[in-house]
Amino acid sequence: MGKNKRVVVISGVNIVEGGALSIFKDCLKEVVPLYKNEYTIIVLVSKKDIFSDLKLENDVDFLEFPKSKKSWFLRCYYEYIYFRKLSKKIRPYLWFSIHDITPNVCADKRVVYCHNPSFSYKVSIKEAMYDKKLFLFSVFYKYLYKINIKKNNYVVVQQNWIKEEFKRIYNINNIVVAPPKVNINYDIKKNEIEKNTFFYPSFPRVFKNFEVICEAAEKLEEDGIKNFKIYLTIDGTENKYSNMILKKYGYLETIKFIGLQSREKVFEYYSMVETLIFPSKLETWGLPITEFKNFNKLMILADLPYAHETLGEYNKVLFFDSQSPKELADKIRRIIFNKENLEFENSEIEKKSEIYNNWRSLFKAILGNDRKGFMYEKNRD
After folding, report:
1. What are the φ/ψ torsions at residue 6 (nearest 5 degrees)?
2. CATH number of the domain that 238 lies in?
3. Which of 13, 152, 213, 262 is the most exposed place for a label (fewest CB within 10 A)?
4. What residues of the chain score a pLDDT lower than 70?
5. What separation, in Å, do the N-terminal and C-terminal C-alpha atoms of the chain show?
6. In whole angstroms, what is the distance from residue 39 CA to residue 6 CA?
7. CA 43 → CA 39, 128, 327, distances in Å?
8. 309 with 301: CB under 8 angstroms?
């Protein structure tokens, strides 16, 4: 630990894979080069080998907690008991928890980054049958977020609709919006566009709402309309939910169940199809929406706040009620038979608060290094 340097802790002991890991790595890649000379940066991780590709061993102190993923009991022990002892020992200026939980620590500034939206989702009985974890999280996270949340200087979320939910449920105002940074580094292969083709790339979770697409296709086939294809990235082997979808809708001629695809293959499909369908009922950020915008093609999106915020300004979009296969079928029919005369819908959204679009600007504001900073301050514990 460097002498006469203030300490910054970035904690993510429960993050080992997926989008959360990408966010964690992006944070370190931007923040460490900016502050490594001014602060001693301590990074709390499950296993430091996961971050070996960043080559930060000489710039930060990694502390490993490999047992943090073994059980929620151990996770809570670290967050609420052990980290308090650790914080008293290292006396950090900033403790930044990048994985939802507000720990019980002593620090001049405390910040929590919340990116699990399940607290706002009402899971149906049918959905709970296929995804018990989502049901538990929808209940658990609502109370987990609440613990110590008012002790934070700032609560960081990814979209304004989540900010409004936090304000409503937890009665706090020190909420900052910081959308995830989306890097698109793929060489996009130019494919000939297939007429009347649609694509929905997603892992099969119950809130991803694959069945609304299948029911819409079913309605169209019943009306004798079969001159289209919808590519879905499931094949029935992934989990109970996808298995149910295949058993129920596998007979449809217009649905092509292609299974999970690599990122490169997903971009090939983006290049090949005419339209993206994104019917998910719950997202912190609809990544395929952001990716598909680069192709300047048609989209049919769930008419939900996350979709409007993710899309931003765009002039080739149709929105539909995510609970209405009939409405989705109508949008698909219009694209098949009347795409030249489509009346698109306005996707512009009101800017409700200042947005920090990268980790650099966010940390400058948190650490007080930009002139504006944030509007809110709280006392040290």
Report:
1. -75, 155
2. 3.40.50.2000
3. 262
4. 1-3, 183, 185-189, 346-354, 369-381
5. 23
6. 5
7. 12, 36, 48
8. no
Structural domain including 216 reads 197-341
How many residues in total does the chain contain? 381
Do the beta carbons of residue 25 and residue 98 sit within 8 Å?
A: no
**Measured in whole angstroms, how far is the alpha carbon of residue 94 from the centre of its chain?**
24
CA distance 114 to 210: 26
Query: Of 253, 255, 257, 227, whose CA–CA distance to 339 is shortest?
Result: 227
pTM, full prediction: 0.82
How many domains does the chain fold into? 2
65-73 long-range Cβ contacts below 8 angstroms, 24+ apart: 65/13, 68/13, 68/14, 69/14, 69/16
Check residue 373 and give its pLDDT: 41
> What pLDDT, on the 0 to 100 scale, is given for residue 3?
61
- pLDDT, one tens digit per residue, over 158-172 is 999 999 999 999 999
Lookup result for tokens 């512009």 = 348
Predicted pLDDT of residue 252: 98
Q: How far is CA 174 from CA 6, 97, 203, 245, 357, in A?
A: 24, 16, 33, 42, 18
Mark whether 133 and 24 lie in a shared domain.
yes
> In angstroms, what CA-CA distances link 278 with 42, 118, 235, 267, 331?
39, 18, 18, 15, 13
Q: Which residues contact 204 (CB under 8 A, 6 or more apart)?
A: 210, 234, 238, 239, 241, 242, 245
Listed residue (8, 82, 57) closest to 368, CA to CA: 8
Is the Cβ–Cβ distance between 211 and 245 less than 8 Å? Answer: yes
**Residue 184 falls inside a structural domain:** no
Task: Give, as one character, the DSSP assignment of residue 194.
Answer: P
**Which helix (DSSP H) or strand (DSSP E) does residue 157 occupy?**
strand 154-157
